[in-house]
Design brief:
alpha+beta; single chain; 2 domains; disordered C terminus; Phosphatase 2c, domain 1; six-stranded antiparallel sheet; globular; 29% strand; Beta-Lactamase
């Protein structure tokens, strides 16, 4: 039987960059497991990368084409046993870091799942103080603009009793001005999808300024209409109307399911409810930063338990090949086909489908966000 308290203490006292080694050492000391390895999912959600110490040769990655135990564990979010090895999901509050593989010395123990959750929480706490796990998640170098965007993200997935939420940027290693942000409080969930005009670092800088202004206003207790006006003022003061950001800013009352939105541009919002797929079209207002003193107002909708929202930037719905746009029919088919999937799997499948549609890399960058609304009686989340 695993002594989880001892494992927790070992991880809590370990240096930020030494979590896996501390975990492996404690498991061996307890006579519980050997061969401990952490595989981190890459930025594109297509590869599981083994984490190894400095100076070692990195083993081959496990890509999406291989139907191995590691991917069954990651996709199904459940422990998988393959011969002598057990794979455990490393996930905290919906954020999937990867999977842990180990060889139990005394047979299967149900508390191995606790082990994966424990490691995930420690990774979340350690990541801001070490580059080891960030570097370990990369299959190649990011552009500077992409580095800026990924560092600003709140994560790639988040969940609570009432909702599950995930987002993805593409091209993951070279994204420019498209980004997203969210924050979950005790009674509110705030979500934004942004598209900063321009290319490269200029576009990333614009989106980061807008995101920071929105966060500053939100943390001051302002409503979403005032948040949009504060961001508009910040961008106009910096650029004088020469640069702007398209924004969909949404807030969900976690007690009632009321959805309030401010829409200033390119993001497209699809609502999947039962067998229906509806495009929500709130009044389109001026992009933030375009004019001095723009005024914004929120529009309200009511979410029902079981609803799914899919929000995509114009890099998704306006992507074109041979005169045909992805958003005309392909996007709707994908949203319907992916209905049984979890939100992270939806955005992963969506950007993969989009790459197939354009036969390679995107000409424009793209952001995709998926939110499932369970209602006030939703599932518990670890």
């Amino acid at each position: 039987m695993l002594d989880i308290e001892r494992l927790q203490a070992a991880l809590a006292s370990a240096p930020a960059a030494g979590l896996v080694e501390a975990l492996a050492g404690e498991l061996v000391a307890q006579g519980a497991a050997t061969g401990v390895r952490l595989l981190l999912v890459d930025y594109r959600l297509t590869t599981l990368l083994p984490l190894d110490g400095p100076g070692t040769d990195r083993p081959a990655a496990t890509d999406r084409q291989s139907d191995g135990a590691a991917w069954r564990c990651f996709d199904g979010q459940a422990a998988v046993s393959d011969r002598d090895t057990v794979w455990v999901p490393v996930t905290a509050r919906g954020e999937r870091f990867g999977v842990l593989s180990l060889t139990p010395t005394a047979g299967w123990d149900e508390r191995l799942l606790d082990l994966g959750r424990l490691l995930a929480h420690e990774l979340a706490a350690a990541r801001p103080t070490t580059d080891r796990y960030v570097i370990g998640s990369r299959s190649r170098r990011l552009t500077l603009a992409a580095e800026m965007q990924w560092e600003m993200l709140p994560g790639r997935a988040c969940s609570g009793p009432q909702f599950a939420l995930a987002g993805q940027l593409e091209p993951a290693y070279a994204v420019k001005g498209d980004t997203f942000d969210w924050a979950a409080g005790t009674d509110r969930l705030t979500l934004s999808v942004l598209d900063g005009m321009g290319e490269g670092v200029d576009a990333a800088s614009l989106s980061l300024l807008a995101t920071s202004a929105l966060r500053n206003a939100r943390r001051a207790g302002l409503g979403i209409a005032d948040q949009a006006m504060m961001a508009d003022s910040a961008l106009y003061a910096q650029y004088g109307g020469a640069r702007h950001v398209s924004l969909l800013l949404a807030e969900i009352d976690l007690r009632t399911g009321q959805l309030s939105m401010v829409d200033t541009g390119s993001p497209l919002l699809l609502l999947s409810r039962g067998d229906d797929l509806i495009i929500l079209e709130p009044d389109r207002l001026e992009p933030i930063g375009m004019f001095d003193g723009s005024r914004y107002a929120a529009q309200a909708y009511q979410l029902h338990p079981g609803d799914r929202l899919v929000i995509v930037s114009d890099g998704v719905h306006l992507a074109e090949l041979a005169g045909r746009r992805y958003g005309d029919a392909d996007l709707r088919r994908l949203v319907r086909r992916s209905r049984p999937m979890a939100p992270l799997d939806v955005v992963r499948t969506l950007v993969g489908d989009l790459r197939v549609f354009v036969s390679g890399e995107l000409d424009d960058d793209a952001a995709a966000v998926c939110l499932d609304w369970f209602g006030t009686a939703g599932p518990d989340v670890q």
